[in-house]
Amino acid sequence: MDLTPRTSSDNAPLAPRKRNRKWKYVAMLVVVASAGGFIVSQFLTSAIDFYCNVDEIGHRTGCEANRRLRVQGVVEKDSLKSGAGRTTFVMVFNHQSIDVMYDGDPGGIFQECIPVVAHGRLVGDIFEANRIEVKHSNQYVAANPDRLAQSKAEPCSQQAG
Amino acid sequence: MNSEAQAIKGVGTPATRMYGLMAIVALGWVLLGGLIFTPEDAVQGDAVRIMYVHVPTAWVAYLAFIVTGVASACWMIGKKHSLGFDRVAGASAEVGVVFMGMTLLSGSLWGRITWGTFWVWDPRLTTTAFMFVTYIGYLAVRGLGGTAQQRARRSSVIALLAVLEIPLVHFSVVMWRSLHQRATVLSPDGDIKMDGLMLFTLLFGVFGFSVLFAWLVSHRQRIMTMQDAQQTSALDAAVTERLKEAQV
Q1: How much is the pTM?
Q2: What are phi and psi of B59, to 5 degrees?
Q3: Which residues of A touch B136 (CB under 8 A)?
């Protein structure tokens, strides 16, 4: 039995409108599949091995010193210097350190004693970064001036990050 | 209209009204607690207040997708293949996608303030984006047409596969190196490193958003029931009309 919706002389046929609605979802699926493919490619090329630790540069596959790297470590206490549009600091991890130079202000909650991921290249003994991301911990402590003063008096270079 | 549609005069019930009231009270506290009563974080300052939205919406998105998976399994396993399960699955996925979108948006704002960037392709963010896109795909498949049972069959298979992404997203920060911090409340060592009032407000937020989820899904699945009933009645009318024509 033919149950196709009727067309009427007054109104436009109903069937094409239904078909259009279906194509809208098909188009949505194509967009979703493309986005999914792009995300998977980002996962395989970027996310799966997001950074090297400071002590792994030149010692771990994918962390060769002659390539562009993302390096993770803690900003050493009393090493941070800013001026003339440039920020320099020492990044430490597992008793290994590296000098980092960045043109600009890193932004975020960048400060001493906080883990960061620096993107860039090793030029000589200096890591020239063009992007810095702050990696905050999973600890949430109420701001307390006494505690802050106490923590500032302690060294921070051996934080695991 | 068939009896199922006639039975539903509106989409509100005493239970949904109670959910709505509880959600308003709980989220009212989260608003006050999050913005006024809870302290600043020692490192992040006021940026930590985004957590009271970001974490509960992420939790509710997980919950929503688990409900979608369980309801789809119930549809598949049940002998009657009750469409009620399919509607709960669909409604829950819709709400979950909205909450996941809120998670990504609030996380992006939080990331800009703390990390210094809106987005980074690290394991947690990448797997979350993939899960978000997967469930948008799930909703697209639900809209492809066919009968309600065909819709249920197609979407239940996808829901059962997609729910496997939840552990992948949750443990991504443990399995791979991530810029995103590890879990605080659900940390593997069970040691919650959070100020007491912050934790209380966060858990209240989880409760409030969960009740909001229940309220939204209850309404949405009842609207879906009405839509399905309307479609069925239109088909019944068409069949009756053609049968009349054949008799003439």
Answers
A1: 0.86
A2: -60, -45
A3: 28, 32
Classify residue B109: in a domain, yes or no: yes
What the block records as the tokens of A152 is 């500032």
| Tens digit of each residue's pLDDT (9 = 90 or more) over B31-75 | 999 999 999 999 999 999 999 999 999 999 999 999 999 999 999
> How far, in Å, CA of A140 to CA of A145, rounded?
15
* Residue B57 forms part of a structural domain: yes
Q: How many residues does chain B have?
A: 248
Q: Is residue A157 part of a domain?
A: no
The domain of B182 spans 16-216
A76 in the same domain as A19: no
- Best to test chain B binding among A21, A50, A131, A147 (most B CBs inside 10 Å): A50
As for the ipTM of the complex, it is 0.80
C-alpha B93, offset from chain centre: 5
Backbone phi and psi for residue B100, each to the nearest 5 degrees, phi listed first: -65, -40
Q: Which helix (H) or strand (E) holds B149?
A: helix B148-162
B184 to chain A, closest Cα gap in Å = 5
Shortest distance, CA B8 to any CA of chain A (angstroms):
26
- State whether residue B182 sits within 8 Å of chain A by CB: yes
The CA radius of gyration of chain B, in Å to the nearest whole number, is: 21
